[in-house]
From TrEMBL:
<feature type="domain" description="VOC">
    <location>
        <begin position="2"/>
        <end position="127"/>
    </location>
</feature>
<dbReference type="Pfam" id="PF00903">
    <property type="entry name" value="Glyoxalase"/>
</dbReference>
<protein>
    <submittedName>
        <fullName>VOC family protein</fullName>
    </submittedName>
</protein>
<dbReference type="InterPro" id="IPR051332">
    <property type="entry name" value="Fosfomycin_Res_Enzymes"/>
</dbReference>
<dbReference type="InterPro" id="IPR004360">
    <property type="entry name" value="Glyas_Fos-R_dOase_dom"/>
</dbReference>
<dbReference type="InterPro" id="IPR037523">
    <property type="entry name" value="VOC_core"/>
</dbReference>
<dbReference type="InterPro" id="IPR029068">
    <property type="entry name" value="Glyas_Bleomycin-R_OHBP_Dase"/>
</dbReference>
């Protein structure tokens, strides 16, 4: 069995789509739009692993994103080495994204950083 995709609601669908394309090499399908509900979605594919579905609709609740909450907390991307973690983290920092932690070696031995992506969604970058 494999994880096919993870879905997340966002307010600004195009900004979220562009973020994952620009920094993580995502490839997007064409937007799906359900005119009855107002739902709009994109599926984003990456070199390997699960896809990410980003969705928006006019009747969403947008609650604060406390990092110590139940439910999904972050998305994690493996970029292929410590140097690539450092480079992408610095690129994101230079482009105005907050670096929440790292790059560092975690207590369980991973080399990673964590940034706050669009709309406060946390994204981990690991080797």
């Amino acid at each position: 069995m494999k994880l096919d995709h993870v879905a997340m609601y966002v307010n600004d669908l195009e900004t979220a789509r562009d973020f994952f394309i620009r920094y993580f090499g995502a490839v997007s399908n064409e937007m799906y739009h359900n005119p009855r509900t107002g739902l709009k979605t994109y599926f984003l594919s990456f070199d390997r692993g699960a896809r990410l579905e980003i969705m928006s609709r006019p009747d969403m609740a947008d609650l604060p994103k406390d990092p110590l909450r139940t439910g999904l907390v972050h998305l994690a991307f493996c970029v292929g080495g410590k140097e690539k973690v450092d480079q992408l983290t610095e690129r994101l920092r230079a482009d105005g994204y907050a670096v929440v932690s790292g790059p560092r070696i975690t207590g369980d031995g991973y080399y990673e950083s964590c940034i706050e992506g669009p709309e406060g969604n946390l994204v981990e970058i690991s080797e």
